[in-house]
Sequence to fold (454 residues):
Amino acid sequence: MHLELMNGTRLELLILNNNRLSGPILTFGPTTLRYLDLSNNFFTSFGQHPTFLPWTHLKFLDLRSNWLEGSLPILPINTSHFFISNNSLTGNIQESFCNLSSLKVLDLASNNLSGSLPRCLDNFGASLSVLDLQRNKFQGSIPKTWIKGSQLEIVNLSQNKFQGHLSRSLDKCTMLKVLDLSNNEFNDRFLSWLENLPNLQVLILRSNKFHGPIRTSKSEYMFQKLRIIDLSHNNFVGKLPLKLFGNCNAKTSKTANHLTYIQVSSTTTYRSYDEYGYSMTVTNKGEIMFYEKVQELLMVVDISRNRFVGSLTELEALDLSQNMLSGEIPQQLIQLTFLEFFNVSHNILTGLIPRGKQFDTFQNNSFEGNPGLCGIPLTKKCENSDETPSQPSISQESHDSKSPFEFGWKIVAIGYGFGFVVGVIIGPIVIARKHNWLMKTFRIRPLSRRRLRN
Fold:
């Protein structure tokens, strides 16, 4: 069944989402149409290319999750909300998009669009709240100018082929909540100049070519509202500054009984509000997790696969599996008394498995795939198995400036409290036995076992 909108009516609102409508969308009449929702159907095209949509008064157009092919349609100049994600569109963003001075939401995610962004794209920056171009094939650099006083709240450019530096003019976007640049080819230093954005909650730079140390300013804390930061799979070096994580244990008045999400809501003519919600992917205990909605209470720090130096304490999950780690498992790990999940399987580790405290709770699969390991819980016994390895105290370790083990780390630390998830992923890191570093950095306080499991 195809859709044909007839002339001769004064239809202003049409909602046909979540049906089984299919075929082309025949784009003629009525010109009075203002709100059109055809999402979650099986429409295949607009019938002609390029498509000039005839609905001159159209404000809201939702074509998400169809089977649309071909190029982007040319929108009426007054369009404010345009959703066309999860289709199979090709081609680039036409220059005509720069004329949409009233555009608030532009969602082109999950298509096969390509090419570079129009240089004039910043023309509608004064009204735009959401720019979502994720999961396409865009390339080149992004516009160097963003209008001062911009209303941008969410910018998601992830999973494309963007390159070069990020323009410092983005620091004019004082309403910005989310900046997701993951899985591109940006080649730049850490974006410390974004630290003064008063509303930034999410900064994701994963899987790019960012490099160098993280510079700090004279302010007490960087990124006053930042709760989710992912710097993984880059080439950052040096020490992690305390200021970067100053808000990671910030108190909040929100409770689990009143959950709110990172989203942009706006009132339209025919509905009290229309929402665009931010979604993201993170790694939790070695598993890739997709969050269709992101709670404002969620806290995540992922700094894995860089060249940071520092040390660890009060971890709750430690995953070093499937690497090339050699030598013995350090006895100092017994002191990580909050450790609930531990996995060093499929490495080339040797020697006696540490005993005591949390290590007595780990199962065989935490150590499998290491032919040189022996001792409980494995069935392989060690020579002199009755000998219990020494357990150096924390105070003794704090005075020792050298580390007996240096290898790459892939670490996941997840904590639960106050109805939200706290995630930390760190690695590879060379340990220097400064066990108070992480506690100070992330403002960690001991949590009771009962609260950890809530």
Remarks:
- The CA atoms of residues 44 and 68 lie 4 Å apart.
- The chain has three helices and 35 strands.
- Helices lie at 394-398, 437-441, 449-452.
